Amino acid sequence: MPLLRIENVDKYYGSKGNITKALNHVSFEVEKGEFLGIMGSSGSGKTTLLNAIATIHRVTAGHIYLEGADITQLKNKELAKFRMEKLGFVFQDFNLLDNFTLEENIGLALTIKGVPKEAVYNKVITAAEQLGIRDALSKMPSEVSGGQRQRCACARAIINKPSLLLADEPTGALDSHSAQMLLESFKSLNRDRAATILMVTHDVFSASYCSRILFLKDGMIFTEIRRGDKTRREFFQEILDVVTLMGGKDSHDN
User: How far apart are CA 99 and CA 212, in angstroms?
Assistant: First the structure.
């Protein structure tokens, strides 16, 4: 059974006379341990799709299954529990609490759940070491680099060992060196912890770290490519060729 199954998903926005179809009969599967990238120009539907999988937005039609459970049928109370237990989120703008240390930011969800302090600390240390930020745990977000803030956000996302890690343009606010460090961390999580990652990106370099890329156009899947045995440089060129075929690189998300 695939970890994630998207089945004939449609998403409409607007009201009578002004309706936009953001997703049009989208179907695909994600296996456990995959590192999947979703690409497309502004307005292609990639962020709408991510928000539907994250249960932030309800789909208009179709079904989304995670570990065999239909998440489109979850009620409000069930949704909060589902997000906390099954999903990890990494956003472009970090979403850290400025008056908390990195350690407190990473462990916050566990602390709120009432997990004993020692257990929280041990989990924070493990996640921080995985992301290479253990030495910065006592610092405030304002005292570290953008790359360290994003790796803190990533540590916070994986501390509960979610079934699926969702990343929305995670390198968008980072310089090239910090972006590469974050992507190497993603690759390590995927390889060493079998983390299943779904990343929305417009950036070809970021996408080249993935094992498979889905390309969206006008709310539909345009094509997909797999890395297989290709080097990252070869995969980068293949991604670039598809982006060019679709109408050029777009530096804006939707």
Answer: 38
Compute, in degrees rounded to 10, the torsion defined by CA atoms 76, 82, 88, 92.
-10
Do the domain assignments include residue 94? Answer: yes
CATH number of the domain that residue 160 is part of: 3.40.50.300
If phi > 0 it is left, if psi is from -120 to 50 it is alpha, else beta; for residue 191 that is: alpha
Q: How confident is the model over 109-133, as pLDDT tens digits? A: 899 889 999 999 999 999 999 899 9
69-70 sheet: strands from edge to edge: 18-30, 4-15, 61-66, 69-70
Query: Identity (one letter) of the amino acid at 236?
Result: F
The pLDDT score that the predictor gives to residue 77 is 85
Domain that holds residue 122: 4-246
Report the share of the chain in percent with pLDDT over 70. Answer: 97
Amino acid letter, residue 183: L
- Angle between helix axes 176-192 and 117-131 (nearest 10 degrees) is 120
Q: Supply the pLDDT for residue 253.
A: 39
Note the residue count of the chain.
Answer: 254
